[in-house]
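User: Fold this; tokens only.

Assistant: Input:
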Amino acid sequence: MTLNMDILRLTVGQHQTNSYVLFCGKTHSLIVDPADDAQTLLSAIAGTELAGILLTHGHADHIGALAEVQQATDAPIGVHAEDAELLPVTPHFLLRDGENVSYGTCHARVHHLPGHTPGSVALEVAEDLWLVGDAIFPGGPGHTDTPAQFAQLIRALWHHIFALPPDTRLLPGHGPSTTVGAEAEPFHAFLQHGWGEEAYGDVRWDTKPSVL
């Protein structure tokens, strides 16, 4: 996407959520998932123009500092329409699959990955770098509450994530990063083994089929 982009990960809050700050050169920034610790986030963007505050989804552990950061910066908030009602404030614009969000001369492309929540999205911030929220982690997909949500998430990962080159880095909403290549073999083995019609919850690729 751009060679002028840099990224900062800040792990904050009791749930150890990853908040990300994207920089375009030294002039413009985006905050993704302002989970907690507004002052740390505001310090990180000092000296830049904050173009927006984006949410990979609307769960409480990803939006703890949302209102405070927005009030301090007057930056617009973007979230997918399906998660808009989860926010404590009204978003200024909606994230749509395939669209770009610009910050300076850089941009992040939105990919809808429903399942963990109806409005979960990933952000493609470079050709080999995606912010994936809680859609996928090292070793398995994100949490789902019903079998239908789990099947929906698996389909989204199949079409969006596992179609990417193996060296694509995936930066999740909690914990360390992974790559498409590291997840591909266990993911495909999981699919071949089958997970049963009642699978959902906290699943790992090495989980045996059951109600999870």
